[in-house]
Design goal:
Number of helices: 10
Radius of gyration: 17 Å
Low-confidence stretches: none
Largest sheet: none
Shape: globular
Structural class: mainly alpha
Number of strands: 0
Length: 253
């Protein structure tokens, strides 16, 4: 019972973080590994997806009701992200992700420094493209980061947000809202793959899903109430945590 309560609370916090800016895996995955140290890693990753996908989907619906989203661009981008995730998951069975693991902290550091240097980046919503051009750029982002999510994964939500801000000219609130849809697609792809392999504890995932949705509700409402500045601050915080976590995993663990 204590184990279930622990992962449920971790899922609540992860849902909050994911809803604001992504990165809930920083909370939930370590919690699962701590509570179930002898479980197969694939099962813990699959169970994580089984709980987290519901909070991400719920956040997508909440944002869609309050934020005007370019569905003409996001719908094909979500399909591209889904495809990219499948291809990435297949690729990781053929080649090692070791090189990417070691380079990821430096990539994230570059993202963080760029965001801090560009103090006005993502504070104002000024889309650079429209129509088909916006759809093509968004789909390119979806395919690239979807592939990354299937191949390796840490920081997927943060990469989606950064590229929507940097390449499409979205503010952080619209970027986070858009990222939720694409992240839901990649999470569904990963969950399907894990489920087909029998790597999901559905009873635990169901409990985690309930608290994840609750955390998502709180996070979404806070982001909508406080706006792009709050989401930007959370983005900096989450990316900083990701740098420490991925750096530890790559070089010190």
């Amino acid at each position: 019972m204590l184990e279930l309560v622990t992962v449920a609370l971790a899922s609540l916090l992860a849902g909050f973080v994911d809803a604001v800016v992504g990165g809930g895996g920083l909370v939930l995955v370590p919690a699962l590994f701590s509570v179930f140290p002898t479980a197969p890693p694939a099962t813990l990753f699959g169970t994580n997806k089984g709980g987290a996908v519901w909070g991400t989907a719920w956040a997508t619906l909440q944002y869609a009701r309050r934020v005007t989203l370019p569905w003409h661009a996001l719908a094909p981008a979500a399909a591209a992200a889904l495809l990219g995730s499948f291809v990435g998951a297949w690729t990781v069975t053929l080649v090692s992700a070791g090189g990417l693991r070691r380079s990821l902290p430096f990539i994230l550091l570059g993202v963080l420094l760029y965001t801090l240097a560009k103090k006005d980046m993502g504070r104002h919503h000024a889309p650079r493209y429209s129509g088909r051009a916006e759809a093509w750029v968004a789909s390119g982002i979806g395919l690239l980061i979807g592939f990354y999510d299937g191949f390796f994964g840490p920081g997927t939500g943060s990469f989606f947000v950064f590229l929507f801000v940097r390449l499409l000219g979205f503010d952080f609130l619209h970027a986070s809202a858009s990222a939720k849809l694409l992240n839901t697609a990649t999470n569904c792809a990963a969950l399907l793959l894990f489920a087909l392999k029998g790597h999901v504890w559905w009873q635990i995932a169901a409990v985690m899903a309930v608290t994840n949705v609750l955390g998502s509700l709180i996070g979404t409402r806070m982001a909508l109430a406080r706006g792009a500045g709050f989401v930007r601050g959370m983005f900096v915080l989450v990316v900083s945590a990701l740098i420490l976590k991925t750096g530890w995993d790559a070089f010190l663990r």
